[in-house]
Amino acid sequence: MHRPPSLATLALCIAALLVLVSCTGEEARPEGTARLFLRAIAAADAEEVYRLVAPASRQRLEALARLATDQTGGRKKIKPQDLLIAGMNQLPSAKPLVVEQQPKIMGDSAAVRLLDQKGKVRFVFEMVRAERRWRVLLPPKLLRTPEAVDPPTSQPASRPAP
Questions:
Q1: Is the pTM of this model over 0.85?
Q2: N or C end of the chain, less CB within 10 A?
């Protein structure tokens, strides 16, 4: 006689299915994450931009937020997302850029090129696979301490095309 599966077996199957489903979304491919990142920038959604940022970039943003909070004497709590809002104008906007469909993937790293309407490369997002999803590494220029920041320029902070 056939016994029904145990509760533990069912739970394990459901967990495996959830992992498989979660890896099939846009974040399972670097170009999908790049599209989500550009949409979040266009919507000025700092929470979503922060969620899509690589852990190393998040750690640096958190350190900079603590430094900024310390500089206010603790009167104002600065969050990493606050820093993203201030720096969003240095990130590429979603229009009129197109995300290339065949990014260069090297193990857990990738480079996703953003193209203009004529197919010319305008920006390159460096990405890493973390938490089973692709995440965007913020350009080092955005993650410097205030005393190390250069005067503002009209150039975007992402890595220029080679």
A1: no
A2: N
